[in-house]
């Protein structure tokens, strides 16, 4: 057979293989969509939520066409004392600048916070991460709320709030971001979570802040947006051995390893973010984020806190591209370790998460792809095993070209005491296809 015939046959086989893979991916996405619907099982009525039906949140049944606060309050209406707790429990404020308190918080979160459905992986939040996450400029010590056992003084529950200047469809809101809601597993039947939410709300309201943003894996009344996680595997062999990655049918480990190889890229001017870059980067990021319908505004102090590593233990990695003294691009990510349970080969996986980025280049897809490629090199050099990204911002533009695969994790964004029409989270809900949306904020 001639070389031309062989080449023609190879091209045909390659085309058919590509079409087959595209069909398979489409089927997988459709199955994920059905799985998500079953998993979240959205109630027909807000009244089925005993707690949330009493709160200033959008009801499932409502479809806001305008935006604004759901409830107007004055400082005089805010209770000056917290709600009473059951006998044996007491309120506390966790001092997140104290190493002992951070160690207690680490223990509580490690044993009782986020864990995957199969109980294979458990997040680890070291002191450096918690300090970074909980003490941005303007943070209020009173917003780190805890519950202790009266007798033993053991920390049993926690919730936090940090300040955030949000923009929702051009309306600027002084708000807080609520995070790290955690109740000891043995106390879940005590219904302490609603009590924790009410207490942090009370403390925040006492500072005359009335709105909040928070995320949840489950649906509660009512998400303003929903994003999906995508994963870019870096160390396929390790992730396969711990059950995070899977071997597709009709493929081999060698093929999977080759597929996720991180290749060096030549991006002139790509370097670490420096302190003196912040004024330019702040302007660049502000302009980029302003095109989204929900985003956060950062001042220079906040830029320094969130994007300049404070120590070697800092979880954040930030880079810029400089051309003739001008910063044209910015990209960042942060890292977390996760304990692997019950695996004899590996006890930890290292996960990097896409954070914020911005560019002034017009060809957004091509430029973001190049920036991601440069970041992937740094992520691999820092021994991370996978890079995770939500369908927020313009992330979906790069997923296909850079071998990101859809995960089964979804993140619902909720606004407290603020109504606005639903914001696209970068997903085509028919088959959860990634597509750039209106969501421009990233919560840790």
What does this protein look like?
One of its GO terms (molecular function) is glycylpeptide N-tetradecanoyltransferase activity. It comes from Starmerella bacillaris. Its EC number is 2.3.1.97. By secondary structure, the protein is an alpha+beta fold. The protein folds into 2 domains: 50-216, Aminopeptidase (3-Layer(aba) Sandwich); 225-440, 3-Layer(aba) Sandwich (Aminopeptidase). The protein is built from 10 helices and 17 strands. It has helices at 3-40, 99-112, 127-134, 192-205, 236-242, 253-259, 278-289, 300-307, 364-381, 396-399; strands spanning 89-93, 121-124, 144-149, 155-168, 171-183, 211-216, 225-233, 270-272, 294-297, 316-323, 326-340, 348-359, 386-390, 405-416, 427-428, 433-434, 439-440. The longest helix is centred in the first third of the chain and has 38 residues, at 3-40. The mean pLDDT is 91.
């Amino acid at each position: 057979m001639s070389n031309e015939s062989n080449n023609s046959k190879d091209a045909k086989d390659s085309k058919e293989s590509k079409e087959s893979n595209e069909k398979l991916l489409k089927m997988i996405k459709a199955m994920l969509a059905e799985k998500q619907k079953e998993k979240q099982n959205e109630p027909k009525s807000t009244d089925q939520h005993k707690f949330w039906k009493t709160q200033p949140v959008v009801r499932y049944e409502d479809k806001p066409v305008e935006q604004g606060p759901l409830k107007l309050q004055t400082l005089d209406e805010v209770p000056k004392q917290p709600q009473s707790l059951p006998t044996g429990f007491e309120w506390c404020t966790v001092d997140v600048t104290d190493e002992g308190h951070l160690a207690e918080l680490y223990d509580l979160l490690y044993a009782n916070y986020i864990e995957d459905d199969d109980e294979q992986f458990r997040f680890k939040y070291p002191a450096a991460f918690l300090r970074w996450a909980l003490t941005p400029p303007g943070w209020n010590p009173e917003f780190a709320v805890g519950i202790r056992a009266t007798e033993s003084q053991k920390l049993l529950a926690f919730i936090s709030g940090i300040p955030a200047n949000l923009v929702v469809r051009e309306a600027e809101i002084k708000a807080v971001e609520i995070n790290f809601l955690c109740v000891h597993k043995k106390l879940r039947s005590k219904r302490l979570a609603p009590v924790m939410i009410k207490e942090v709300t009370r403390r925040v309201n006492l500072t005359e802040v009335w709105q909040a943003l928070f995320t949840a894996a489950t649906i509660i009344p009512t998400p303003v947006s929903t994003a999906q996680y995508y994963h870019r595997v870096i160390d396929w062999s390790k992730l396969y051995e711990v059950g995070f990655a899977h071997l597709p049918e009709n493929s081999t480990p060698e093929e999977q390893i080759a597929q996720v190889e991180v290749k060096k890229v030549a991006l002139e001017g790509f370097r670490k973010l420096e302190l003196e870059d912040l004024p330019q980067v702040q302007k660049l990021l502000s302009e980029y984020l302003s095109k989204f319908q929900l985003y956060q505004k950062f001042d220079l102090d906040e830029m320094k806190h969130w994007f300049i590593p404070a120590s070697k233990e800092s979880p954040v990695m930030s880079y810029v591209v400089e051309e003739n003294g001008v910063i044209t691009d910015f990209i960042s990510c942060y890292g977390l370790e996760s304990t692997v349970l019950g695996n004899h080969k590996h006890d930890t996986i290292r996960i990097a998460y896409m954070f914020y980025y911005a560019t002034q280049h017009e060809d957004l897809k091509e430029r973001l792809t190049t920036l991601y490629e440069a970041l992937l090199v740094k992520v691999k050099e820092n021994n991370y095993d996978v890079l995770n990204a939500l369908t927020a911002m313009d992330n979906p533009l790069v997923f296909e070209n850079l071998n990101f695969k859809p995960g089964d994790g979804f993140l619902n964004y909720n606004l407290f005491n603020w109504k606005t029409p639903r914001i696209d989270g970068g997903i085509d809900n028919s088959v959860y296809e990634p597509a750039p949306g209106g969501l421009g904020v990233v919560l840790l």
